[in-house]
From TrEMBL:
Family: Belongs to the thymidylate kinase family.
Domain Thymidylate kinase-like: 14-195
Listed EC numbers: 2.7.4.9
UniProt cross-references to PROSITE patterns, sorted A to Z: THYMIDYLATE_KINASE
Pfam families registered for this protein in UniProt: Thymidylate_kin
UniProt name for this protein: Thymidylate kinase
Gene source species: Penicillium malachiteum
Gene3D superfamilies found in the cross-reference section: P-loop containing nucleotide triphosphate hydrolases (3.40.50.300)
Length: 216
């Protein structure tokens, strides 16, 4: 009989506000997918290790300033520089878990309330990037976020930005497909179970979805 063609991997994005539990949940999801016998890779944006990523890191730590539009395009370029390698991994059967993606990209920039940097403007450079098969949004209330500890010292880690970011995520997710809103206010294990359910459903649909699509 013919050898079975490689089943492509899934592109899974995890989004959420600071302290929603993204990193822990990404790690638990990685272990879950591995245990099921599937190849899996974890990546995160911004990827601070590349030359563009270092500019972003300097900006976030406050040691460099950048025009709002300019830094926005650098965040997007930081995704474009790995787009090909994501496509190759997915094609070779590896499921890729991505910690923050285009959604954070558009929302954080638009939250600055710069009159020439709308959510619509901010989304444009994302068009054509690999499209997630599912985007899991870890949703926590402002109160729950506050309970989980104080803000860090990086740019954006303050109440005003977080409130705007939360609202803009909602606006963006009304317009985008394949978004799963996960109540991230529960325990690690409960949240993890909800994520596993959503991801299993997504992986079961992969054959009918067909090849990896692009963001539109
Ligand atoms: P971390 O806390 O996850 O390291 O993110 N951000 C992120 C943007 O403004 N644009 C983007 O495209 C991405 C991926 C969100 C650092 C901060 O960078 C913000 C928080
Ligand atoms: Mg952070």
């Amino acid at each position: 009989s013919q050898p079975k063609p490689t089943r492509r991997g899934a592109l899974i994005v995890v989004e959420g506000l600071d302290r929603a539990g993204k990193s822990s949940q990404c790690e638990m999801l990685r272990e879950y997918i591995l245990k099921q016998g599937n190849a899996v890779k974890y990546i995160r944006f911004p990827d601070r290790t590349t030359p563009i990523g270092q500019l972003i890191d300097n900006y976030l730590r406050g040691s460099a300033n950048q025009d709002d539009h300019s830094i926005h395009l650098l965040f997007s370029a930081n995704r474009w520089e790995v787009a090909k390698s994501i496509e190759q991994d997915i094609a070779s059967g590896i499921t890729v878990i991505v910690d923050r993606y285009s959604y954070s990209g558009a929302v954080y920039s638009a939250a600055k309330a710069n009159p020439t940097l709308s959510l619509e403007w901010a989304w444009q450079p994302e068009l054509g990037l690999p499209r997630p098969d599912i985007c899991l949004f870890l949703s926590i209330s402002a109160q729950e976020a506050a309970k989980r500890g104080g803000y860090g010292t990086e740019r954006y880690e303050n109440e005003t930005m977080q409130t705007r970011v939360r609202e803009l995520f909602r606006t963006l997710f009304d317009r985008q497909e394949d978004i799963a809103i996960i109540d991230a206010g529960e325990s690690l294990d409960e949240v993890s179970k909800d994520i596993q359910k959503a991801v299993s459903d997504c992986i079961a649909r992969l054959d009918s979805i067909g090849p990896l699509r692009v963001l539109g």
